[in-house]
């Protein structure tokens, strides 16, 4: 379905994840973050960059991958994206929700 | 805080076979990933999973486990349990499942509370130094129940 975010029309799934990453831009990310109650900072964007790179390289995302990322540790990750960090970060990043159980 | 009806998951882990330990860990971690609080109470043999010297040497049960599809007598032969355990650990590694020690670190960093059961600690003559550094404390069952005393809390015995 279509949704207007930051003056742009994008297609999203039922949960609100963008279904086409090419439609994503930083303004859209900032707007989705606001809906999730998150005010984006440079540190937030650093993580978004990291997970978008993973997505582009078709590498699966997991909490273990975050631990090994070198960008952030797990404690900070939970603090920056409270209440389901990987779920929220992927939504802001405009990529699909991770399917992994870890 | 999550929008889900389940707000907090409390796990009681009473066994130290790999399949049970990982079930508890995956579910406790999964809860945190969904924004749900989670805690694990290690009791009886479950304590092996938080003993520094033992946690990397846990095994799958090859005897009395029909799902292994292995005759019970074969499962009891020396080395068979270790072999099956190594095979399983390799498969888990392929799925990016962390080893027990690293998984405990991830859980602790994710805000999952890790508790040891006081009665079991006393029974096995363990001391705090035998247990992982990330342990949040040693509790009585009464203490543990008081941690369950809020709306939306679920308890699970593994």
* Cα distance spanning the termini of chain A: 29 Å
In terms of structural class, how would the helical and strand content of chain A be classed?
mainly alpha
Largest sheet of chain B: 5 strands, parallel
* Terminus-to-terminus distance of chain B: 25 Å
Low-confidence runs of chain B: none
- The second-level CATH architecture of chain B is 3-Layer(aba) Sandwich
For the report, how would you describe the main beta sheet of chain A?
A: 2 strands, antiparallel
Oligomeric form: heterodimer
The pLDDT mean of chain A sits at: 92
Percent of residues in β-strands of chain A: 5-15%
Q: Provide the spatial order of strands within the biggest beta sheet of chain B.
A: 4-3-2-1-5
Give the SSE order of chain B as H and E letters.
Answer: EHEHHHEHEHE
> What is the β-strand count of chain B?
5
Average pLDDT of chain B works out at 92
Instruction: Give the class of chain B from helix and strand content and strand pairing.
Output: alpha/beta
| Widest beta sheet: strand line-up of chain A | 1-2
- What is the level 1 CATH name of chain B? Alpha Beta
What is the CATH T-level topology of chain B?
Hypothetical Protein Ychn, Chain: A
Describe the protein's architecture and organization.
The complex is a heterodimer of chains A (102) and B (158). By secondary structure, chain A is mostly helical. Chain A has one domain. Chain A has five helices and two strands, in the order ββααααα. In chain A, 30% of the residues are buried. A five-stranded parallel beta sheet of chain B has the order 4-3-2-1-5. Helix content of chain B is 37%, strand content 16%. In chain B, helix 5 links the parallel strand 3 and strand 4. Chain B has one domain: 3-Layer(aba) Sandwich (Hypothetical Protein Ychn, Chain: A). In chain B, helix 1 packs parallel to helix 4. Classes of the chains: A mainly alpha (102), B alpha/beta (158). Chains A and B meet through helix 3, helix 4 and helix 5 of A and helix 1 and helix 4 of B.
């Amino acid at each position: 379905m279509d949704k207007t975010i930051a003056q742009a029309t994008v297609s999203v799934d039922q949960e609100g994840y963008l279904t086409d990453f090419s439609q994503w831009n930083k303004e859209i990310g900032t707007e989705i973050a606001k809906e999730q109650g998150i005010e984006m900072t440079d540190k937030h964007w650093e993580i978004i960059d990291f997970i978008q790179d993973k997505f582009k390289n078709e590498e699966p995302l997991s909490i273990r991958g975050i631990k090994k990322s070198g960008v952030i540790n797990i404690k900070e990750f939970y603090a920056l994206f409270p209440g389901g960090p990987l779920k929220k970060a992927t939504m802001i990043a405009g990529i699909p929700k991770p399917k992994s159980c870890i | 805080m999550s929008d889900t009806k389940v707000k907090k998951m409390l796990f009681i882990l009473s066994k130290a076979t790999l399949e049970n330990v990982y079930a508890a860990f995956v579910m406790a971690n999964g809860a945190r990933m969904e924004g749900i609080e989670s805690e694990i109470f290690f009791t009886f043999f479950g304590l092996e999973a938080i003993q520094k010297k033992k946690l990397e040497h846990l095994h799958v049960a090859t005897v009395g486990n029909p799902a292994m599809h292995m005759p019970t007598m074969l499962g009891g032969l020396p080395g068979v349990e270790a072999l099956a355990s190594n095979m399983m650990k390799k498969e888990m590694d392929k799925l990016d499942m962390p080893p027990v020690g690293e998984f405990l670190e991830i859980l602790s960093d994710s805000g999952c509370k890790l508790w040891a059961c006081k009665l079991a600690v006393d029974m096995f003559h363990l001391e705090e130094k035998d247990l992982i550094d990330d342990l949040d404390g040693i509790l009585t069952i009464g203490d543990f129940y008081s941690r369950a005393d809020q709306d939306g809390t679920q308890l699970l015995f593994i």
